[in-house]
Amino acid sequence: MRNLLRAVAVAAALSCTTPALAQAPAGGAANFPTKPIRMLVGFPAGGPADFFARTIAQKMTEVIGQQVIVENRPGVSGMIAAEYMTRTVPADGYVIYFAGTGVLTFAPNLYAKLPIDIARELAPVTLAVTVPEMLVVHPSLPVKTTKDLVVLAKSKPGQLSYGSTGNGGMPHLAVESLRVAAGIELVHVPYKGAAPAVIDLLGGHVLFTILDVPVLLPHVKSGKLRALAVATAKRQATLPNVPTMTEAGYPSVRADNWYGVVIAAATPKDISAKLHAALVKSLNAPETKERLLSQGAETRSTTAEQFAAFIREETATWGRIIKSAGVTLE
Prior knowledge:
The protein is α/β, with parallel strands linked by helices and 330 residues long. It folds into 2 domains: 4-131 and 256-325, D-Maltodextrin-Binding Protein, domain 2, CATH 3.40.190.150; 133-248, Periplasmic binding protein-like II (D-Maltodextrin-Binding Protein, domain 2, 3-Layer(aba) Sandwich), CATH 3.40.190.10. 44% of the residues lie in helices and 18% in strands. It is built from 14 helices and 10 strands. Strands 1, 2, 3, 4, 7, 8, 9 and 10 form an 8-stranded mixed sheet that branches. A two-stranded parallel sheet has the order 5-6. α3 links the parallel β1 and β2. α8 packs across α14 (304-325). It starts with a helix and ends in a 5-residue tail after the last helix.
């Protein structure tokens, strides 16, 4: 992604000032915000979630009149960031969480016991970004289609490795759904985010993955990776010649990734409303839409109630997929 490394470096430098800035008086809800807001991301800098968050935070800084600083707290598919927000910082709106499917819908289906009650301790603000997932392979693999990959995997059971953003994340579960649908055996190599997974894929240390289109797009266009299919209902405008999983013969493999903003459930309603208004304005700004669309992602704002209903629906859908794949985590 163009300018991503520069944006990450600038934001990282700004984030170094966070502890000092956090000492500013919070003020009341009527004056909110009176100091910088921290936007947590549960993945490392350089990946798609980080890029989306920084794009939105940049615009939100203009809209809300205070700096919005992205803070990366990677690990356990976003659960470390969620636990930090609900256990460590006040519920005053000055820490918000740019969360994804992993923590909001997968975790309740994957773990018998979680450190926090996601439904009770996190309050939805708005859906923010939807992004398609894509199946890509290292060009050393002699495959041109998804069925070619399946045939190769069947000829080498338990030998083909794939990278993911971590156990229980969207890439892991998307590939697992392909494994079940195709009846193949694979080797899963989990990473702590998309950036390190892609680095190892480019180096041939793992052989394929299903990941967000934005992080894969430049490598596909440069020929460093080969796209086999998009795991969405329709083809993508940025890659019109890449078929869908349905067209490839595996309609049960779906991976529509998304991210939204949540806050601590105890946050006052009037502060939540101010955050919602600022986020919606930021998401609907033409420059935000254009920047994300150029990378294959779309902005999508909702009411808090709509986002809550969407999370419930996604949790139920992925619960069925996770059960059929037999994936559990401790």
